[in-house]
User: Which sequence fits this backbone?
């Protein structure tokens, strides 16, 4: 038995090493013998062992690298704040602790499902933590199966150091920033009344830009005297995530001061920051959970079901069928047209969503004409079929915001157009690249 | 969440040279959460599950016996993609059954590989979407594909220059900012095909010829190139049965063009696939 198993144990050790997991051979032998005692077939036993050690090895993560839905990792951080909450968990009153955890270069929210008597300022190491997506950012979770250990205070920078808002360019603002400071110009600016706890509050919403990117903002404090075109210095704006896109929130901790651009030179102007961005490769768009105001350029390689004429509930805008909304029961539906498509540039693929106005532009038919098609064909699918014929394979540039959904990255279009035909520039560049820049040579046999 | 497979862009030559199929092993399927697609790895390291191609359909045959099975040749400047559409691709089958050839089409589909026992390998496309396009889209596709193929060629040259293989090569490529998918594909391709500089150079020529096939930039708007004039004339003359070559030369001459210019223009149009010769002496414009 000893000798027979040896090659298999060696094979397993190597297999685990190849995925950077080092396990002692005796441990593998013990596991393997146990499984074989239960008469588990050898192949099945080997598989079980690889799985077991794979999940037992815990990668050590920095907070900035934690993405949603990770399992079994180790993380060290300082508790910035923590609050106790009572929640109803499957019919049982449970006390949970949630708050903010930070390390040298990032912060995230956490939820502890057991009481570890955590206090603000504690430095803790959590083993076997897992993450999930909560309010559009990743949250560290730990509970009964995790191991929490308090570490000495000097492992991480001090509380003050960790909560200081770093000065960042807008492009560098990420979901692990709690708060940031920056200088940016206001591109859009509008007031809106919202109802918070039965109280009417006026907030300001808009878009900020610098030479690197644009980001949405919401202000809960008065911005009197400021308007579109003003450049402002923002200190300690809190960062919230909305569908994967960071958004700056101004609250009582935030200081806003107007910058006099006549005395202080800025690397951007209203004109330079307000134009359509240059196209981004779809592979790059796919690397980000969400991007604000990007242009993607590619072929529509598929028109997805759900495109065409649809009926919406007048109350909630949900797409409905047979005049029945799943929330508002029988309703008089409202007609709408949309296009859901896959845009692919050979480096990546995103779903794009076009509203009625943009659908009419790229489809080349108005909603009235589309309804006519349905009438003539006596089929709801007729417009979808026609859209496929008109659009599949074509080139489009789509501008909008992206967000991460369970079906992949989605680009909600704010404008769409047929890109300029620049093939001659590219053809000449290609010929040059290949060491042949003679144009007009047609000797291709 | 599972990422959608990207529609790879590659010329027919590189696709048809591909022989290396990767099936996911059951273990990998488990570790990847039940999703591990099939890939065909091309000699330049493209990992193809889905691809997007454009070209001229030159042949369509129904080769099915019990059920319809349509086979089409979609020709690009480097060769032909073979497209099969059977009973499980009803829309594509319907499309091909009624398509008048020749026609420019775009095809999105899954890469398939067929290995009969004699050791030969055939690759084909199983279409998901197939549609009629114009020559502008075809030209842009050639440029896109040329750029992306050159990126692979450049990455492959880095790989060959390093002299590394396997995991070491993969890491070397990633350090050189090659995307992980391509780095993996190149490591696999080098191991399987032993792709050498000869092949890489040959593919460079293929790419160059594909780019050249687009022609050259029209000089300026006032001077309409001879080809455009001839093409316009051919369209005027065609009443459905094609154009008599001799007649075309006569009429073009009457419009002030020299015979050698006319012949050269027609030859270029033929080479570019803008027109074809169904019978000797009869020309037809590709619409």
Assistant:
């Amino acid at each position: 038995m000893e000798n027979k198993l040896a090659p298999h144990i060696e094979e397993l050790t190597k297999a685990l090493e190849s995925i950077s997991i080092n396990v002692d051979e005796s441990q593998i032998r013990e596991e393997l013998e146990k499984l074989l005692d239960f008469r588990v077939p050898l192949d099945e036993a080997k598989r079980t062992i690889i799985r077991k050690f794979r999940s037992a090895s815990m990668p050590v993560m920095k907070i900035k690298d934690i993405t949603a839905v990770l399992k079994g990792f180790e993380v060290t951080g300082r508790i910035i704040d923590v609050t106790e909450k009572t929640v109803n968990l499957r019919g049982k009153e449970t006390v949970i602790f949630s708050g903010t955890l930070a390390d040298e270069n990032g912060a995230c929210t956490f939820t502890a499902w057991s009481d570890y008597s955590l206090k603000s300022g504690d430095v803790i190491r959590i083993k076997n933590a897992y993450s999930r997506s909560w309010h559009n950012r990743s949250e560290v979770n730990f509970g009964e199966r995790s191991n929490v250990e308090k570490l000495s205070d000097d492992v991480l920078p001090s509380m003050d150091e960790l909560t200081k808002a770093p000065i960042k360019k807008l492009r560098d603002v990420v979901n692990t920033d709690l708060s940031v400071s920056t200088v940016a110009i206001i591109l859009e600016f509008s007031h809106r009344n919202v109802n918070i706890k039965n109280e009417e509050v006026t907030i300001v919403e808009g878009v900020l830009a610098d030479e690197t990117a644009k980001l949405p903002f919401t202000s809960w404090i008065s911005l009197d005297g400021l308007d579109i075109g003003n450049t402002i210095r923002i200190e300690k704006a809190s960062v919230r995530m909305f569908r994967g896109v960071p958004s700056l929130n101004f609250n009582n901790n935030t200081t806003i001061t107007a910058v006099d651009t006549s005395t202080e030179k800025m690397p951007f102007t209203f004109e330079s920051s307000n134009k359509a961005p240059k196209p981004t490769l779809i592979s790059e768009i796919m690397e980000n959970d969400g991007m604000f105001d990007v242009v993607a350029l590619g072929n529509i390689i598929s028109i997805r079901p759900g495109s065409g004429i649809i009926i919406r509930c007048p109350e909630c805008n949900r797409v409905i069928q047979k005049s029945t909304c799943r929330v508002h029961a029988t309703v008089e539906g409202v007609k709408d047209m949309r296009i859901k498509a896959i845009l692919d540039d050979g480096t990546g693929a995103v779903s794009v969503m076009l509203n009625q106005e943009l659908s009419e532009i790229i489809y080349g038919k108005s909603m009235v004409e589309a309804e006519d098609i349905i009438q003539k064909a006596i089929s709801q699918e007729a417009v979808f079929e026609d859209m496929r014929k008109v659009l599949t394979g074509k080139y489009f540039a789509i501008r909008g915001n992206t967000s991460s959904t369970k079906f992949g990255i989605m680009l909600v279009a704010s404008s769409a157009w047929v890109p300029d035909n620049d093939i001659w520039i590219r053809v000449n560049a290609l010929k040059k690249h290949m060491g042949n820049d003679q144009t007009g040579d047609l000797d291709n046999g | 969440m599972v990422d959608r497979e990207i529609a790879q862009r590659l010329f027919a030559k590189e696709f048809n040279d591909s022989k290396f199929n990767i099936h996911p092993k059951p273990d990998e399927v488990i570790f990847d959460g039940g999703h591990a697609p099939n890939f065909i790895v091309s000699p330049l390291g493209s990992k193809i599950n889905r691809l997007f191609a454009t070209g001229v359909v030159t042949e369509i045959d129904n080769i099915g016996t019990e059920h319809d099975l349509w086979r089409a040749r979609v020709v690009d400047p480097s060769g032909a993609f073979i497209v099969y559409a059977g009973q499980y691709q009803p829309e594509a089958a319907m499309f091909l059954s009624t398509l008048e050839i020749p026609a420019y089409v775009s095809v999105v589909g899954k890469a398939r590989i067929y290995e009969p026992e004699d050791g030969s390998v055939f690759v084909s496309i199983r279409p998901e979407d197939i549609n009629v396009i114009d020559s502008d889209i075809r030209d842009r596709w050639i440029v896109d594909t040329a750029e992306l193929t050159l990126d692979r060629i450049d990455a492959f040259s880095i790989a060959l220059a390093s002299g590394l293989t396997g995991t070491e090569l993969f890491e070397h490529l990633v350090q050189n900012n090659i995307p992980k998918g391509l780095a993996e594909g190149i490591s696999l391709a080098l191991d399987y095909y032993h792709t050498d500089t000869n092949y890489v150079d040959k593919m460079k020529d293929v790419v160059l010829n594909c780019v050249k096939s687009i022609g050259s930039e029209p000089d300026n708007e006032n001077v309409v190139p001879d080809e455009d004039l001839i093409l316009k004339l051919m369209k005027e003359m065609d009443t459905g049965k094609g154009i008599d070559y001799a007649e075309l030369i006569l009429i073009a001459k009457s419009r002030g063009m020299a015979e050698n210019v006319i012949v050269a223009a027609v030859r270029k149009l033929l080479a570019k696939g803008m027109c074809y010769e169904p019978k000797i002496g009869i020309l037809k414009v590709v619409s």
